[in-house]
Amino acid sequence: MPDPAASVVIESLVKRFGGFVAVDQLSLVVRKGEVFGFLGPNGAGKSTTIRMLCGLLRPSAGRAEVAGFDVSRDPESVRQNIGYMSQKFSLYNDLTVMENLRLFAGLYSVPAKLVGERIGWALEMSDLSGRESLITRTLPGGWKQRLALGCAVLHRPPIIFLDEPTSGVDPLSRRRFWELIHRMAQEGVTVFVTTHYMEEAEYCNRLALIFRGRIVALGTPTELKHDSMKGDLLLVECHPLDAALEALQGAPGVTDAAVFGSALHLAVESASQTAPRIGALLRERGLVPVKVEKIRPTLEDVFVSLTTVSAKESRNP
Question: How many other β-carbons are positioned within 10 Å of the β-carbon of residue 262?
């Protein structure tokens, strides 16, 4: 029986390009009013999935429903019920802010009697009121992204897909953009967003971590940090850092080692067993560890750990 609270339903979705599998057996459900994050590196399959869900690409196998419409059987109805903002700025740079808004109101078939109201709402939402006559190419990056979002939601869709929406935008503008996203979600809009910024993932209600076309973890940011990482995480402070990294990569019990600020983060099988050996190993190399302690992982730590394990498993099935 269909879930009435579901906005997006994906079942065993696959997309192949010749012999290359870009999306591999994806299954998940996104609920109404949820900010759902698709987190992964470039080439992981995020944009391909978004394009299928928007009715722009036909799946090779599996099925997906968006706003109750099958993306393969009725892509036009899907497109009428969504907003879409691509990772590349897709508005017309030679038009003014107002001209872009009027153009997209026409493209989205906004009723003539509602155009003025919807444009006013979009200008207020994106904080562009009073800037209607500015040429779009002269706008700062953050303003352009807000304008693109305003154009994408002029027809008040129940679901909006944002594909890397803040790529190349400064941190302050990125924060402002996410405030707009959460405001829409509070009004019941489902927001499906792809990103490779780990700090942005914290703003999502739930996340799917995707790697090589497959979901490697699914849950809230808190759940992923507490439950998804295999083993433990150690923070190691030692000088010089590059020598310590070289000494610890591939050490017994260490599954991954990486520089994190002025320290190292080590993914280990067991903190209680490995931590005492770390200090001894460093001292054998003539290095003096300042600190070795177990810490809670960040989302970046979780993602690196899961993708490292997934890559090893794919090489050694």
Answer: 8
